[in-house]
What we know:
Number of strands: 14
Strand content: 15-25%
CATH superfamily: Metallo-dependent phosphatases
InterPro entries: Calcineurin-like_PHP, Metallo-depent_PP-like, MPP_ADPRM
EC number: 3.6.1.13, 3.6.1.16, 3.6.1.53
Low-confidence stretches: 1-10
Largest sheet: 6 strands, mixed
Shape: globular
Strand order of the largest sheet: 5-4-1-12-13-14
Mean pLDDT: 95
Bound molecules: adenosine-5'-diphosphate
Number of helices: 8
CATH topology: Purple Acid Phosphatase, chain A, domain 2
Distance between the termini: 39 Å
Protein name: Manganese-dependent ADP-ribose/CDP-alcohol diphosphatase
Subunit structure: Monomer.
Number of domains: 1
Organism: Ictidomys tridecemlineatus (Thirteen-lined ground squirrel)
Order of helices and strands: EEEHEHHEHHEEHHEHEEEEEE
Helix content: 10-25%
Amino acid sequence: MADKANPGTLTDNSERLFSFGVIADIQYADLEDGYNFQGSRRRYYRHSLVHLQGAIEDWNKESSMPCCVLQLGDIIDGFNAQYKTSEESLEVVMNTFKMLKVPVHHTWGNHEFYNFSRDYLTRSKLNTRFLEDRIIDHPETIPSENYYAYHFVPFPKFRFILLDAYDLSVLGVDQSSPKYQQCMKILREHNPNTELNSPQGLSEPQFVQFNGGFSQEQLNWLNEVLAFSDTNQEKVVIVSHLPIYPEASDNVCLAWNYRDALAVIWSHKCVVCFFAGHTHDGGYCEDHFGVHHVNLEGVIETAPVSQAFGTVHIYPDKMVLKGRGRVPDRIMNYKKEKALNF
Ligand SMILES: Nc1ncnc2c1ncn2[C@@H]1O[C@H](COP(=O)(O)OP(=O)(O)O)[C@@H](O)[C@H]1O
């Protein structure tokens, strides 16, 4: 929980192109503090809203205003469903986000599905697909309605892709639906435990009920968007609630078919970094293909004395994460041949 000694001295403003904000796992609930399942980490359900307010104040005050904020999922806690406060709590958090002067892109995590069905989410303010950019004459880059994913271009030559890591999941879908049956089959094939949230004894511990995965349809779409970005020499940032790179994450927290997502990403040269939430502890690794995997520290497990959010500044040759509180600063260089000429 140690805060950084010397944040903010990473680089100068001279060649900065644009910036964006990142925040993960707010998990707000109007409840007393609690603990995670293992009882090892305190969860500050009420204070998470204060953390969000602080983050928004900082982003609004930044000298170069971020173009947008990426909310990496789990915006309210699953406990809200138990106390029948889901809609009320979502309203409280969304009203807080209204203070932000720039658009926010909302990702969906497991806690969204503890509180709401997929149909409800699709109709809710958490569906920010209206912020997508469509590529004229390239219909293969338009996502289908079967999953919640889209892409947008906040700055020329930089494409952001928001992925649906619960596209394959038993959460939020009608138990009588074929999709539920298909996903339950996948889960049970990999997890023989009676308690499907338990990874005990699993060779692939990510196959638990609180995770999910990417359908082949979504991966095919991702492949098309990345092919377009390669052809047009774009840089790509990908966002998902679930992480996909084992060395940057707790193995239990990975997307079910993280290898399939990696295979698509690694078959293209355009992806610079992959942001995820879910783990709460944070993590980072640059993979062998030069993709930077950042797991953001979760707001919910951040003590009131600290903070957990960041601003990413984009330069022609790198992205620089300026973390606040327990989010560390990171310099994420593009591979040499990938540096942009501006
Ligand atoms: N090892 C485990 N065994 C059984 N159930 C678990 C285990 N870990 C988590 N769970 C359950 O899975 C659900 C999600 O876990 P939780 O840690 O709260 O997720 P998140 O980190 O997304 O908040 C909770 O209902 C929790 O009780």
